[in-house]
Design brief:
Elements lengths: L3 E5 L8 E2 L15 E3 L3 E4 L5 E2 L9 E8 L2 E2 L9 E3 L11 E5 L4 E6 L13 E5 L22 E7 L2 E9 L10
Antiparallel strand pairs: 1-10, 2-9, 3-8, 4-5, 4-6, 6-7, 6-9, 10-13, 11-12, 12-13
């Protein structure tokens, strides 16, 4: 299960949503990508969004998919998965709408039982996405007190198999370590 919006650290500000086919909001999805609502994404070397944000800063979390301002229908038999064509970058230019706010809180799953690695179930620790290219799971074994893509606020009180996090290492964020 992907990242689910849980709340916010800044209730008077809301989410910071960007998306489109023109700079500075350019979030065109890379050719042949499969994007799901709740994926953590980043820009590839060509400037197109990919759902593998396992290394480096995260661009944001996908909240929608559109083309020319019109929502795109998800893949058949899904409620939030989108597969773009092999020529999306130049032809359809379908783009993701992403939340770039470091104030949005998410309930996120991990790849192992939280608490297996010291701190992965506690507030104040940081974790990265799963290194296998998963855009939807935290790597429980990366729990650290010093570095990580996501800051943990501890276990989700609604589901102890998930943790509440917000973006820590975000592209364009001056505080990225």
């Amino acid at each position: 299960m992907p990242f689910n919006v849980w709340g916010t650290l800044a209730p008077n500000e809301g989410q910071q949503i960007i998306g489109g086919d023109a700079t500075p909001y350019r979030t065109i999805i890379a050719n042949s990508e499969v994007i799901t609502i709740g994926d953590a994404v980043q820009w590839d070397a060509g400037g197109f969004l990919v759902n593998d944000a396992s290394v480096g800063a995260v661009a944001g979390i996908v909240v929608g998919v559109a083309n020319s301002g019109v929502p795109v229908a998800p893949d058949s038999a899904t409620t939030g998965t989108y597969t773009v064509a092999s020529n999306n970058q130049t032809v359809a230019q379908i783009y993701a709408i992403i939340d770039i706010s470091t104030d949005t809180l998410y309930s996120a799953p991990a790849d192992a039982a939280l608490g297996t690695t010291t701190g992965s179930n506690l507030p104040g620790y940081l974790m990265d996405l799963l290194a296998s290219g998963s855009a939807t799971q935290l790597d429980e074994s990366t729990a650290s007190a010093t570095t990580g893509q996501f800051f943990s606020w501890g276990l989700d009180p609604r589901n102890s198999e998930r943790v509440i996090v917000n973006l820590n290492e975000r592209i364009g964020n001056a505080s990225v370590s």
